[in-house]
Amino acid sequence: MKTRDRILHTSLALFNEEGEPNTTTIDIANELNISPGNLYYHFKGKDQIITELFQQYEHAMSHTLSAPIERPLSPDRASVEDNWYYLYVVMEEMYQYRFLYHNLDNLLQRYRDIKRGFKRLIQLKRTALYAICQTLLQQKVIDAKDQQLLGLADNMTLNLTFWFSYDTLLHDNRSPQVTIHQGVLQLLAMVAPYLGEDELSFYHDCETIYINMLADTSLGPR
Amino acid sequence: MVDEKSKVTDKASEIAKNIWLAGVGAYGKAVEEAQGRLEKAMEPPKLFRDLVKAGAALEEDARESTLAARHTVEERINRVRENFHNQRPARIEDLMALHKKVDQLTRKVDQLSKALAEQGVSKTSRSKTYKTAKKSAVIAATVRRRAGKKQAKAVGTANKKTSGSKSATNKRKA
């Protein structure tokens, strides 16, 4: 791996684990065993690292979010569960860059570009979720009025965006699997009232897996 | 009367939808830019129409640029699905499928032992035939036993975590 990529990689790990405000460029250089001068040669400061990490995130996330807008994730009713699996994909991707969400207001105030990018991502997120809900409606998986559907998509976007903060407030240091799984479970709980009996079985399976996860001691605090 | 009412509702949901699309339109441009134009534009509906158009155009763009990305999203969905199935509680259908497989295997083993026994009769002595037949019977029994174990294991996957989860699964089955 090139030094430049290593710097980004290590910065992301430190930001996620220690928090972005608590991490200095000196910390990053120390962690990498390189001199601060070497780091400065690649990045003119923490701002530049953060901006570049956000660009990576925006790029990846935009692609992921475009998928259900472009064409339904489930071509027919039989593959409806792909929509639920997709929620895991989105949340896992968010988790990789979770430092952004743990310090969101602060970051948006400090960086106008990131603020702009984040606004774009939120719009794309709710559009993607709305597209999924529309597919579900067309395939008669859910039964809802158009207006309810808009509300549902917004609620899901809201939940998705602030899930990590909420989870951290409720439980310190849970394993990523539990955090992500419960996040998806919460999203499903919003769709559940509109689901028929058949599709509810997936929701119940999710609940069972969650209970198993909580009972599994190997998934305890990190 | 009823028609009038549903017309109003239709219109309302159309407006709501447009607001939505306008939101996507704002994705394409800098929001500040749009706001600047809002101050200048004396006809807000025009701007609104612009945004809706921009939103629609953006959906087109998204369609083109994401064909490649689609693949990876699908791959990742597949990975999650696999992972999910490993953790999922066993269902009646899964058990039935396993039963069917065990039955098929048993039948195959029986056929094989029969064939072996017949071959044995034509080529070797009686005692050897007897031995071969016995051997295949043992094989058949082992396969049956293993299949049984496999089935138990499949059920066990759902319950293996702890007794707490076991009771949860049982409750659900009840």
Structure description:
The complex is a heterodimer of chains A (222) and B (174). Helices cover 77% and strands 0% of the residues of chain A. Chain A has eleven helices and no strands. Chain A is mainly α and 222 residues long. The mean pLDDT of chain A is 90. Chain A folds into two domains: 1-44, Orthogonal Bundle (Arc Repressor Mutant, subunit A); 45-219, Tetracycline Repressor, domain 2, CATH 1.10.357.10. Chain A has helices spanning 3-18, 25-32, 36-42, 46-70, 81-96, 98-102, 104-110, 112-138, 146-170, 176-191, 197-215. Chain B is built from seven helices and no strands. Chain B folds into two domains: 9-65, no CATH class; 90-173. Chain B is elongated, with a radius of gyration of 33 Å. Chain B starts with a helix and ends with a helix. With 174 residues, chain B is mostly helical. The longest helix of chain B is centred in the C-terminal third of the chain and has 34 residues, at 126-159. In chain B, helix 1 (2-28) packs across helix 3 and helix 5 packs antiparallel against helix 6 (126-159). Chain A binds chain B through residues 63-64, 66-67, 69-71, 73, 81-82, 85-86, 88-89, 92, 116, 119-120, 123-124, 126-127, 130, 145-147, 150, 204-205, 208-209, 211-212, 215-216, and chain B through 12-13, 16-17, 20, 23-24, 26-27, 30-32, 59, 62-63, 65-67, 69-70, 72-74, 76-77, 80-81, 84, 87-89, 158, 161-162, 164-165, 168-169, 172.
Distinctive features:
heterodimer; A: 222 residues; mainly alpha; Arc Repressor Mutant, subunit A; Tetracycline Repressor, domain 2; 2 domains; B: 174 residues; elongated
